[in-house]
């Protein structure tokens, strides 16, 4: 009797199984290819962004039948994980909606679900980026202006709830204000009165809001030469300036303008009514902060002008730089490269913006977002990547910090000491100490000589005492720490007892 199983005699079984394997591998390869195409759209290419978008939309449309859910998921993830490319993906969705109205409706539903889930899971940055993307879809004629205004009004309603933490209310207003630069012009042209009503409601909220936390979060105890504004007050001033300029800004790329003739004929969708989830005691909200300012246009050399403190471009640039640090903080070289590759870098003094943002992160109160050494290593890598400009800008920033150290917060003073000593240790402890000779006339406990003393004490851990005796000018001898000598109590006087 033949004891082999019947299907072993039949080659069809293995043939079918191999076909299934091939189908699975082919589908997987196709999905990976689509994901790569979507993720890399807008990056360096020999052809224009418009032609890339048209070609990619044609590819996605032909593959909708087999990979619909995959395409929906990737297109909804990208603007949240890569917010700097928000307008590129909104243009792509707009072109697909113009060709396939049903897909546009499905995508809006998917994006709304993503937004609601982010709110429920306290993923506040993801929720804010999802709201921004929904707003930008209005520019691409995917979503109607009325339904977006209804959503923004419900966000402001959440900010006016009673018996909830102020940080919750603050976040909802911040989310709305930070979205307006993308869609403000469209709302101004089509729904001016509704937009004005929204702004009036926000202004009423801001006037009633308490700011007891402001003084505790300041880096300096004085406002000269740069006022230390609370973050919502600063953003509100920037939005008011944007409104005075008729909602026109010069920083956000808008590739959908090239396809206006196609997009304007598309049918629009309505966002369903969204009620923000009620507050729960387990929810944790972003804490307030003070906007850090170090430079203004007078500090920069001739060339591109630094945007004013209340220009919306300053907010957009800083937000973009902060997001790059958040995304690439684990790899300092990648982080430095992406910081220096910021779009529109020819229109701004980029090195000054980068240094200001990194020190804003380092001096963030009550604690920095990441380890202090993270920012020090990024600054060192920036100096290596751009040795012609970055070291000079960093030296200028150090000089400004030293001159204002009298009024610096004690915690920030310690972080400044830690960063400067670490930075010197990576550049052979070279510094123009003679420029700070004036501090030698002050008492040793004054913040300026005290800073030098603390820096040298920290540097001693990276080097040896005789090196500092040789390196430092003679006048600084009193600030050099005592040589670290062993303390052996049995050889001291009276040890016999």
From TrEMBL:
Component of the nuclear cap-binding complex (CBC), a heterodimer composed of Cbp80 and Cbp20 that interacts with m7GpppG-capped RNA. Belongs to the NCBP1 family. The keyword Heme does not apply. The lineage of its organism: Eukaryota, Metazoa, Ecdysozoa, Arthropoda, Hexapoda. The keyword Nucleus applies. One of its GO terms (biological process) is RNA splicing. It comes from Anopheles stephensi. This is Nuclear cap-binding protein subunit 1. Pfam families: MIF4G, MIF4G_like. Its main location: nucleus. Keywords: mRNA capping, mRNA processing, mRNA splicing, Nucleus, RNA-mediated gene silencing.
């Amino acid at each position: 009797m033949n004891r082999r199983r019947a299907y072993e005699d039949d080659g069809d079984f293995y043939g079918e199984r191999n076909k299934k394997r091939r189908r699975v591998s082919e589908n997987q390869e196709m999905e990976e290819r689509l994901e790569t195409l979507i993720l890399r759209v807008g990056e360096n290419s020999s052809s224009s962004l418009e032609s890339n978008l048209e070609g990619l939309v044609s590819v996605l449309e032909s593959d909708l039948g087999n990979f619909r859910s995959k395409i929906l998921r990737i297109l909804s993830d990208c603007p949240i994980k890569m917010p700097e490319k928000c307008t590129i993906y909104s243009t792509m969705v707009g072109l697909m909606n113009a060709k396939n109205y049903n897909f546009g409706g499905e995508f809006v539903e998917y994006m709304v679900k993503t937004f609601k889930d982010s709110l429920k899971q306290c993923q506040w940055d993801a929720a804010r980026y999802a709201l921004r993307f929904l707003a930008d879809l209005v520019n691409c004629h995917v979503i109607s202006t009325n339904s977006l205004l209804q959503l923004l009004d419900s966000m402001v309603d959440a900010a006016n709830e009673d018996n909830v933490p102020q940080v919750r209310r603050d976040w909802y207003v911040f989310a709305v204000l930070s979205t307006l630069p993308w869609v403000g012009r469209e709302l101004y042209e089509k729904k001016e009165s509704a937009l004005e009503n929204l702004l009036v409601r926000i202004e009423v909220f801001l006037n009633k809001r308490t700011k007891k936390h402001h003084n505790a979060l300041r880096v300096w105890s004085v406002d000269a030469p740069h006022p230390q504004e609370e973050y919502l007050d600063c953003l509100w001033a920037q939005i008011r300036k944007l409104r005075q300029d008729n909602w026109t800004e010069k920083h956000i790329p808008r590739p959908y303008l090239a396809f206006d003739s196609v997009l304007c004929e598309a049918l629009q969708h309505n966002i369903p009514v969204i009620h923000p989830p009620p507050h729960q005691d387990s929810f944790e909200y972003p804490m307030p902060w003070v906007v850090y300012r170090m430079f203004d246009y007078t500090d920069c050399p001739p060339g591109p002008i630094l945007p004013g403190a209340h220009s919306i471009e300053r907010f957009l640039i800083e937000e973009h730089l902060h997001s790059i640090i958040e995304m690439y903080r684990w790899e300092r070289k990648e982080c430095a490269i992406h910081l220096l590759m910021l779009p529109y870098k020819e229109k701004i003094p980029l090195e000054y913006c980068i240094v200001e943002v990194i020190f804003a992160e380092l001096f963030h109160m009550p604690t920095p977002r990441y380890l202090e050494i993270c920012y020090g290593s990024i600054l060192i890598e920036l100096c290596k990547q751009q040795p012609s400009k970055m070291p000079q800008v960093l030296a200028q920033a150090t000089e400004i910090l030293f001159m204002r150290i009298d009024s610096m917060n004690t915690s920030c003073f310690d972080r400044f000491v830690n960063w400067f000593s670490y930075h010197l240790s990576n550049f052979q402890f070279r510094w123009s100490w003679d420029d700070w000779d004036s501090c030698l006339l002050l008492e040793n406990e004054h913040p300026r000589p005290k800073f030098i003393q603390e820096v040298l004490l920290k540097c001693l851990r990276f080097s040896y005492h005789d090196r500092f005796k040789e390196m430092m000018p003679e006048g600084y001898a009193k600030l050099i720490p005592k040589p670290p000598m062993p303390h052996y109590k049995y050889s001291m006087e009276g040890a016999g007892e």
